[in-house]
Amino acid sequence: MKRAKTRQPASYIERDYRAVADRGDLISSYATIKDTDLHILADREVSSMAQELALRYRLQIEKYIEKFPEFAHALAPLPPDVLAPPIVREMLAAGCAAGVGPMAAVAGVIAEHVGRGLMQSGCLEVIVENGGDIYIHRNRDCTVAIFAGESPLSLRVGVKLARLALPMAVCTSSGTVGHSLSLGQADSVTVLARSTALADAAATRLGNEIGRSPGGHGMKRALEKSRDIDGVLGVVVICREKIGAVGDVELVGIH
Predict the structure, then answer these.
(1) pLDDT tens digits, residue range 197-252?
(2) Given 3-state DSSP classes, what are the helix, strand and coil percentages for the chain, each rounded to the nearest 5?
(3) Which CATH fold topology does 10-253 show?
(4) Are residues 233 and 193 in contact, defined by beta-carbon separation less than 8 angstroms?
(5) What is the DSSP string of 1-34?
(6) How many whole angstroms separate alpha carbon 87 and alpha carbon 111?
């Protein structure tokens, strides 16, 4: 899948942001299957159910890859497949919209499908995070802090989400943090969208744009390119001490 497991210390650094999450009145649960690494906040403990849901959706993707191996390796969009499972069709559509391969959406799409499954099972509120890609369904306003690696702005800037705008996807890609394939140089590219698959794929695409144009030009290019991706609601880019944003984004300072 998109993120490879490793025993190197960097894998633990990548998840340090979980320790500073404000859980409020929600309960933490976890589910891990291979490179799917979920942290769930919900109004009840859901580890067992989340594990079952994650396994179900991973198997659908893995079985599709067995039939169509190119799905796992394509770096460019693949055509739609009306016979594919719904989760795979979402990945294909997200890849087409963002101009990347469908596996760029894998972490986000699993987070959303697990979150939806938990809501259908009776949860009233749920946040599912899968390696920085987040599906949020809450009944109140909330703020998502942006983890940007070594940038001095990391975890000091957040995106405020209004209750009426939820559910929402907030997905972050980085060219300097983590093990996902990225051709970019940004500390973080954060995308807001209704679809978590789309937000994940778009974050990858926009991070790649920064890699093609280093410095301030790359940030400007990525922000401009985001306007061409249908379904993207807002974007925040952090490169070291610089930050840029477009779209329907309310930035807040975090102390």
Answers:
(1) 999 999 999 998 886 555 568 899 999 999 999 999 999 999 999 999 999 999 99
(2) 40, 25, 35
(3) T-fold (3.10.520)
(4) yes
(5) --S----STHHHHHTGGGGG---TT-EEEEEEET
(6) 11
